[in-house]
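Team,

Forwarding the record for the chain on the shared tracking sheet. I've put the sequence and predicted structure together so nobody has to dig through attachments.
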Amino acid sequence: MPGSDCLKYTKKRLTWPDEEIQAKYKKKYVWGEMILQLIYAELDLRKQVQLEEKLQHKVKALEKSMFVTKLQISDASQDLEKLHNQITSAEHTVYEKEGHLPILLKKNYDLLRKDPHWFMRKELVDNCASQGGCCSRDCRCCAKRESSPRHKGKGHCTVECWCCSISRGFEFSDEQKEARTLEWKSMLTKSGSPYASTLAKSLICPVSKFRWRSFFTSSSDNASQDIENLLEGY
């Protein structure tokens, strides 16, 4: 069954040990660190792609407005062009981190992403909804991102989501965005974090053919058990 050996070669949880034993056990934790770095890179790319969506909405609104200058439209268009260059760099970073994965883990990672709806699996939908993202509303923005022309950077809401900012009624400040990102990383790196285990298997482990047809309504028992066994306390 696809995914039954998922994360087989990590054999470690996603956290580093205390510094005094880190050197001794560094090799045992190296795959977990690679997974973390890939998760961070994917989040950064999603944030920038969603910021691009936000700026595109802004440019369209300015073009329709009767009370803006050509300079305002030009400035917004230049910001969008700069962001395109940043997204290209972020895409390359994700590609680089993907290349660091062990071959069988990379095979599972790629297999999952062959389906354009892969990120709409139940675990990731629930995670988005629990954080107040678009999956907690009826807008279906996350599902619509499947049609994005970009090959990478598709997925659930980040602090840059345009629809979420409209729903909140305000935009996060840079300080608030940074604080939320640090809090999220803290949840991932906390020793024995069940959140890290769930997120890792949701982003990397393929699902059975039955799950493809049922829109990700249950987890693949073999893959799930493998990860629970391999990430929970070596």
